[in-house]
TrEMBL record:
The gene is secF. The chain crosses the membrane at residues 20-44, 150-171, 177-198, 205-226, 253-273, 285-309. It is found in: Cell membrane. It comes from Brevundimonas olei. Forms a complex with SecD. Part of the essential Sec protein translocation apparatus which comprises SecA, SecYEG and auxiliary proteins SecDF-YajC and YidC. Residues 133-308 form the Protein export membrane protein SecD/SecF C-terminal domain. Keywords: Cell membrane, Membrane, Protein transport, Translocation, Transmembrane, Transmembrane helix, Transport. Part of the Sec protein translocase complex. Interacts with the SecYEG preprotein conducting channel. SecDF uses the proton motive force (PMF) to complete protein translocation after the ATP-dependent function of SecA. Belongs to the SecD/SecF family. SecF subfamily. Its main location: membrane. This is Protein-export membrane protein SecF. It is a multi-pass membrane protein.
Amino acid sequence: MSMNGWPIIKLLPHKTNFHFVKYAKGFAVLSAILTVAAIIGCFYPGLNLGIDFRGGASMEVAKPAGQVLELDKLRGAVSGLDLGDVQVQGIARRDTNLDDGSTAIVRFQVPENEDQTAVVQKVEGAISQAVGEVGYSGVSVVGSKVSGELLTNGVLALVVAVVLMFLYIAFRFPWQFGIGAVAGLLHDVALTFGLIVALRMEFSLNLVAALLTVIGYSMNDTVVVFDRLRENLRKYKVMPLREVIDLSINETLSRTIITGLTTVIVLIVLAVFGGEALRGFSITLAFGVVIGTFSSIYVGAPIILLWGVDRSGGGKADATPVKLGMASRP
């Protein structure tokens, strides 16, 4: 069956005529405020670094199905061992994916001068003594040196990804397009970090993977809009630039909605049924898809209107309605 036969596709109009540029200034102010707030949030209160980047250990503690695990006793038992910051959180069972109060994840720090295996065994003994017979699974231990290296490599991966995307745009499009693409990309990364801070999600390697995926998705969506814009600039040489931008976004709107909606639906299902390990990844990526679509429309393209386009081939930017050409590129 072709896509045109799907009921949801029939609900989308074949042609739209929304005036996106008309509201660009208001959304630009909103985006600037949210971006600044997100950047500030990364330093205060700061990211909730997980075991991967802070060092320490985590384990799942579970009683038999139907028996309630007393989180206060669990927390008190581990806190009494003087292992620094201790976090206890109830989660759904692995076998049923239901949160019946019988399972929790425990996170604690491992002192540098103590044997990791011995510390984990001591924690398990204290927990068993406090709450009775329980099972342990998913034990993960990361040393402080390794966690520092992982944090450095994670940040480096994000920086390299942004730089490579910038080089790709610089090679494929005129510099005015590059400014819009990079601005949109930085906007998406900043706001996604802001979501992580606002929801106090544990910043782990999973979220680094989500951020890298957001960067790729955001750039892909931006390139689709920019490709159509470049084609229309050559096709409608006397049309005002703001109208060409509106036309290009409207022509790619149905594709953007279909792609974004199907991706978000899958990620919502993954967040609900994928368990604790994938919930943060799914939420972060779903938000990144939505905000990436927004930035392609209200951050990347309007910046081109601000700078104008090269109409003479000599590097001079001009947004004059009458001579709105663009130097042809090979």
